[in-house]
């Protein structure tokens, strides 16, 4: 049973990482609107914080090394760390909402997930802007103001993506798992 659970967890992580990276490349021409953060969050929500964080770190480990916008080691490490926050938050929220009826609470949960898309993105953007400023010897305030349009776009886009897509995706993963609990972190 243990080997089966480990194999399943590896398969889930690999699939989510591949999906995360593939969607980033598909949306490469659209600045700061990506599905990676959402995929990492849902991975954490459905499969636990450790799995979600692993998806985040591995996604940026690969995508960051092969980033068409260039490679800066400090920014790469910061994005790996910051991306894992989505998975950890998703895992925590997944435990809190484990007994919630998603079908009955669809609208209320969608509004809640708007917030869950927005708040971690504020933290992600703050971390990556500070590391960017440090890496290029730019005053932090200047980096934050210069990056403000991209930051706002990222935060609003994530709020919308999380709000619209979280409930359907979580319900679909629940169906795929046979309706049972799909948190692999306890197995």
Question: What's the arrangement of secondary structure elements?
Answer:
Elements: H1 2-26, H2 36-47, H3 49-65, H4 73-96, H5 106-135, H6 140-146, H7 148-176
Label the structural class: mainly alpha
Largest sheet properties: none
Distance between the termini: 9 Å
Number of distinct beta strands: 0
Q: In DSSP terms, counting alpha (H) and pi (I) runs of 4 or more, how many helices?
A: 7
The CATH first-level class comes to: Mainly Alpha
Query: Low-confidence parts, pLDDT < 50 over ≥5 residues?
Result: 181-187
CATH architecture: Orthogonal Bundle
What's the alpha carbon Rg, rounded to whole Å?
Answer: 17 Å
Number of domains: 1
Mean pLDDT over the full residue set: 90
β content, as a range?
under 5%
> What is the N-to-C succession of helices and strands?
HHHHHHH
Q: What's the helical proportion of residues?
A: over 70%
Report the principal-axis shape: globular
- What is the CATH topology assignment? Arp2/3 complex 21 kDa subunit ARPC3
């Amino acid at each position: 049973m243990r080997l089966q659970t480990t194999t399943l967890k590896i398969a889930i992580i690999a699939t989510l990482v591949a999906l995360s990276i593939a969607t980033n490349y598909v949306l490469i021409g659209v600045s700061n609107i990506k599905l990676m953060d959402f995929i990492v969050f849902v991975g954490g929500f459905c499969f636990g914080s450790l799995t979600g964080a692993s998806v985040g770190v591995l996604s940026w480990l690969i995508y960051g090394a092969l980033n068409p916008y260039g490679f800066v080691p400090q920014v790469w490490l910061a994005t790996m760390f910051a991306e894992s926050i989505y998975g950890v938050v998703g895992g925590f929220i997944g435990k809190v909402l484990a007994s919630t009826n998603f079908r009955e609470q669809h609208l209320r949960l969608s509004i809640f997930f708007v917030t869950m898309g927005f708040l971690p993105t504020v933290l992600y953007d703050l971390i990556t802007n500070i590391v960017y400023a440090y890496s290029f010897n730019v005053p932090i305030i200047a980096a934050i103001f210069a990056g403000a349009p991209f930051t706002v776009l990222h935060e609003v886009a994530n709020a919308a993506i999380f709000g619209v897509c979280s409930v359907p995706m979580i319900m679909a993963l629940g169906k795929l798992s046979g309706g049972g609990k799909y948190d692999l972190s306890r197995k």
